[in-house]
Each structure stands twice: as structure tokens, then as C-alpha cells.
Amino acid sequence: MAKQLTERDAMICRSCEREERASEGYPCAVCGTFICLMCTFRGVIRCKSCEAKAIAPVAVRTPLKIDWPDH
Q1: Where are the alpha helices (DSSP H) in 1-71?
Q2: Residue 60 contacts residue 43 (beta carbons within 8 Å)
Q3: What's the CA gap between 19 and 39, in Å, rounded?
């Protein structure tokens, strides 16, 4: 009678959302969550949420108005 293993060495990739072995991946460059090896081969270095934050538009600044004296 063979004993079934109940341990799992799997994590969900925070980029493609596939379940992969935890030992076959790298952490997100910003927050450290798991990114699978295949996404890493594709050049992914940040998870979906960190990538969305990086792409988010920066608040538009109003131009600085300088009041120069007339000469």
C-alpha cells in the first residue's frame, strides 16, 4: 500500500496565474510575490499589480507660472 503525499510545492504565478512549482520561479522585483519560470523567460520582472502601478499615469502638474518684472 503506497502512501499518498499530501504536501504540495506549488504556488500561483502572479503574472499569468498558472500554478507552478515554487522552486521553479522568481520573486517580483517590487513586492516579492511569485513569478513562474516561463514568465521570467518572457522578460516579466513584476507581478500584475506592480506592473499596473508602474504604468499608472502620473498626476498632471500645472505649469509653473513665473511672474517676471517688466524691464
Answers
A1: 37-41, 48-55
A2: no
A3: 12
Cell numbers standing for residue 18? 498558472
Q: What gap in Å lies between CA 63 and CA 35, rounded to an integer? A: 40
Of 36, 44, 41, the closest CA to residue 20 belongs to 36
Per-residue pLDDT of 42-63, as tens digits, reads 999 999 999 988 876 655 555 6
Closest-CA residue to 39 (of 26, 30, 51): 26
Residues with Cβ within 8 Å of 25's Cβ and at least 6 positions away in sequence, in order, are: 11, 13, 34, 35, 36, 37, 40
Prediction pTM value: 0.65
Contact 15, 48 (CB under 8 A): yes
CB 46 within 8 A of CB 30: yes
